[in-house]
Amino acid sequence: MEFLQRLFGKRKEQPVVETVLALEEASVGKGMSFLVGRASHVGKVRGRNEDALFTLDSTILQDDESLPFGLFIVADGMGGHKGGQLASSLTTRVVADWILREVYLPFLMGETQDAGQWPINEALVEAVTTANAAVHEAAPEAGTTLTCALLLGANAYIAHVGDSRAYLVNRTNIRRITRDHSLVDRLIELGQISPEEALTHPQRNVLYRAVGQAGTLEVDTYLQSMPGNSYLLLCSDGLWSVVPEQEIVEIINSAQSPQAACQRLIQVANERGGEDNITAVLVGVRT
Amino acid sequence: MEHVFFGSDDRHLYNVSARSGRVVWKFEAVGPIRSSPTIVEEIVYVGAQDCYVYALNIQDGSVKWKFRTNRPVMSSPTFFEGLVLIGSMDWNLYALDANSGWAVWRYRTGGHVVATPAVDGNLGLAFVGSADGSMYAVDLRTGRMAWKYTTENQVVSSPALFGEAIYFGSVDGFIYSLDARSGEVRWKYKTEGIVVSSPAVVENVVYIGSTDHRVYALPA
Questions:
Q1: Does A156 contact B at CB distance below 8 Å?
Q2: N or C: which end of chain B has fewer CB within 10 A?
Q3: Which segments in chain A show pLDDT lower than 50?
């Protein structure tokens, strides 16, 4: 098992600059649509933002029935001298490029699917494997987490490595979909520490799996059926390590829009110290 | 109005009024349809001998999507949380995205898959038999095999789920009960003929026919 240690560097407090991105809303025809928000912030301690994100929200309207297709990625880089930035942005671009070429474009081209095409799970794993090799070559000392969700209508197909997270959120509850590939999560599984102790554990940033590592990378995949009026939240540990899950539920459900919710989540994380980069992508599923 | 949906060797899937017997619409495939349709939220899913899995709009029989496997499809679809699970003579069990028909994963067995898959949502497993003689449990999330149990001959019987067990027959003449979680044999019962039919379980009793001309009722 290869452990990757994140590198910390305390810097003077940075001015908080809101990342303002346009709210996208799709509401056409019968069927389902997505409401997407996203925001990323350097935090109040780090000198640079090593998180990266990608969002694509599209809708195919056919016979007055809409089929939304979305691709959403959060990556949290690690490694000194811009290595983390390179790892997260390269991974995000390689995975997005691969999925769009091998899944999205063929999907656009016709109604007939066929056994010769990549199944979604295999496509996701192949995309992340390709990114792993690219990062290992470009920045051997760096690595990144990756949480990638491909949404086809109400089905979310997720590929995951590291300790960024995907959550399913509804009006009252939140459920973590992904499992962290971190030392502290293993210790929790083994019953040696509690989830609360993990938040302050000195080795809470140690990952045993990350994109960019040498050798074979095992990629977790998940299927999540999205109920109507639920949300899919992808976020880096700069958010989930300082904002409790129930508070995340309340912020999402009290916000005017997913975009407003993302900005509020980042604001709250910064109010709690903002020790790490903070990234949130929130997809509301509307029926 | 109630309708009956069925496929035919004349290559059509029929939607017939249950009251009058009148054909409401019919859909023409390229090959015979021996798969039984599954209907979920106004979509009719069915396999055909022309190698395709079809998703048809229930209102008019128009094609919503179609997915081409590499061999004929005799298996019938099972729907579970946005996935359409179906076997093919190309040896694969497929999980298709119900919205788009895109394959989510495929699991390749060692023989034709003509049986209909069963799903245990709590365990997150799909169960299907193969002509390679094995019953497979496949993880719904990943498409990876959780366990397999190998009988002495082909498994074309579709498994029934009851409690924490699955029940099915084999061409080796046995009726099997396996633990759904582990795949371990709970019991097996030898009939005097091959078993190609699929069991029904009612009130702790497993009912299944054998080619020895008997129907068996066994305690689950």
A1: no
A2: N
A3: 1-28
Instruction: Convert the pLDDT of each residue in A76-131 to its tens digit.
Output: 999 766 789 999 999 999 999 999 999 888 888 765 678 888 899 999 999 999 99
- CA atoms of B69 and B51, how far apart (whole Å): 5
Bridge partners, A280 (sequence order):
A39, A235
Looking at chain A, how many residues does it have? 287
Cβ separation of B104 and A111 shorter than 8 Å? no
Which amino acid is it at A51? D
Q: Does A152 touch chain B (CB under 8 A)?
A: yes
Of B66, B88, B99, the CB nearest to A153: B99
Ranges of chain B whose pLDDT falls below 50: none
Q: What is the pLDDT of residue A192?
A: 86
Domain boundaries, chain B: 1-108, 110-220
Instruction: Write down the pLDDT at residue A81.
Output: 67
Residue A152 identity: L
Return the closest-CA partner of residue A37 out of A269, A242, A235: A235
Q: What backbone torsions phi and psi does residue A242 show, to the nearest 5 degrees?
A: -125, -15
CB-nearest partner of A119 from B64, B90, B104: B104
Model ipTM value: 0.79
**CATH 2.40.128.630 applies to domain B1-108:** yes
Nearest CA of chain B to the CA of A221: how many Å?
6
Give pTM, 2 decimals.
0.84
- pLDDT recorded at residue A110: 67
Domains B1-108 and B110-220 share a fold: yes
Q: Tally the C-alpha atoms within 13 A of residue A60's C-alpha that lie toward its C-beta.
A: 17
Nearest to B96 by CA among B75, B79, B118: B79
A67 touching chain B per CB within 8 A: yes
Question: How far apart, in Å, do the first and last CA atoms of chain A sit?
Answer: 44
CATH of domain B110-220: 2.40.128.630
Whose CA is closest to B10, among B43, B50, B39? B50
Of the candidates B58, B21, B25, B19, the residue with the CA atom closest to the CA atom of residue B41:
B58
According to DSSP, residue A13 is labeled P
Pick A119's closest partner by Cβ from B70, B82, B103. Answer: B103
Q: Element (H or E) spanning A78, and its range? A: strand A65-78
Instruction: Give the Cα separation of A136 and A156 in Å (integer).
Output: 28
What gap in Å lies between CA A93 and CA A156, rounded to an integer? 20
